[in-house]
Amino acid sequence: MNMIWGKWHHLYKMTLQWLAEQWSTKQGLTQQWGKVIRWTGMVFLASVLSGCSAELDEYQSQSPAFDLFGYFEGETRAWGMVQDYTNKQTRRFYVSLTGTVKGDTLVLDEQFVYDDGEKDTRVWTIERLPDGRYRGKADYIIGVALGQEKGNALRWQYDFLLKYGEGSEMTVSFDDWLYRQDAHHVFNLTSIRKLGIEVATVTLFFRKETF
C-alpha cells in the first residue's frame, strides 16, 4: 500500500508542478481551469493526509517540556538546510537568535547567513495566550502564526510570502514541528506546501547558548 501510494503521490506532485509551469506562461491554462485544478488538488490531498498526519496530543507525556519562552530567551544558535520535493539539498544556512521576554511576549531576533553569502533578518513577536497557545507575527508572515505545545513538542502553522527570482513572490504554507531533546538542543522539521502539496522541507538543529 505504501509503495503504491508513493508512486501515485510522486506522479501527482509532478503533474501539479507541470501545470503550475504551464500556468506561468502565456500559453498556459485558462483562469477557470486553473481554479478547478487547485480545488481538485487540495481536496484530494486533504482526504489522503487527514489520516496520516501526526497529532500534537501524542507528545503530551514526553519530556522535557518544550517551554517556548524559556528555551528561546537569551542566545541560541541554529544550523539548517532546505530540500526540494525530490529531497535534494538546495540551501544551507546558519542562524543567530536573540530572545527577549517581557511578561507574555517574546521578541525573537533571527539573523540568517546562507551558504551563498546572502543574509536575512526576521524578527518575531510572539504572544502567549491565556489558553496556553501562542500567536506570532513577523516579516513576510501573512496574518498571524498560531502555535501550541504539548510535552516536548511545539507546532507552528502559518502562511508565508516567499520571494524568489527577480521580483517574483508566492504564498506558501509552513507547518513547523519542533522537538526539545534536552536543556540545550531542539530539532525542527518544517513542511512547506503550495496548493496542499509539499514542495520543500526545512531541517534545523538549535543549540541554546545562554540560560
UniProtKB/TrEMBL annotation:
It comes from the Bacteria. InterPro entries: DUF3833. It comes from Vibrio aerogenes CECT 7868. This is Lipoprotein. Pfam families: DUF3833.
